[in-house]
Amino acid sequence: MRSANDVHDDTGTRARWHLPLLGGVAVLLVAAGWFFPLWRATLYAPQYPGGLTMHAYGHQVTGDVDEISGLNHYVGMRPFDIADFPEMALWPYVIIGALVAVGLALLVRRPVLRAIGLVYLWGTPLGVLAVIQFRLHQYGQDLDPGAALRIDPFTPIVVGPTEVWNFTTWSWPGLGTLALLLAAALLTFGPGLLRRWSARASGSDPT
Prior knowledge:
alpha+beta, Butyryl-CoA Dehydrogenase, subunit A, domain 3, 5 helices, 57% helix, 15% strand, disordered N terminus
């Protein structure tokens, strides 16, 4: 018959083995925030049945940027210029901060520091979407009154469809943003779930 100390040792061993694995997965998810787009938009119209796509990373924007910028010019939106987004220069530091936050959330015992790490991890992807929404608002509201096609100022939405004339733009969070959200969720709920699983596997009380 196993003693309570044996059960406790088994639970602690599993926790010590799984926490580094949890941290490793979280680090990979944070790294994905650099390598994958944070946001994407696809513009559809009768003359573009396949759509024109834009992918926004933390440090660059790729896709059919020039063509989309040219179409936006007709309704008075200013041309896309990456220099209009100085926050992109901060993205490497944001990612480094997220990696530090992983360590705070997973390895530090002080609840306040752990909470700071989790708040940072949740705030990063949500902040990304908020900044993109702010920039979309700027572009849609600051229209040239002398444009070829006169429309009222509008605000494209960061997630979902926006219709202007015969164009419909669908916007979504990119894989990078989803990976950052998953990292935050993993470190928020993962340790508790692992403790419950380890306790059940060892036959001790999961509570």
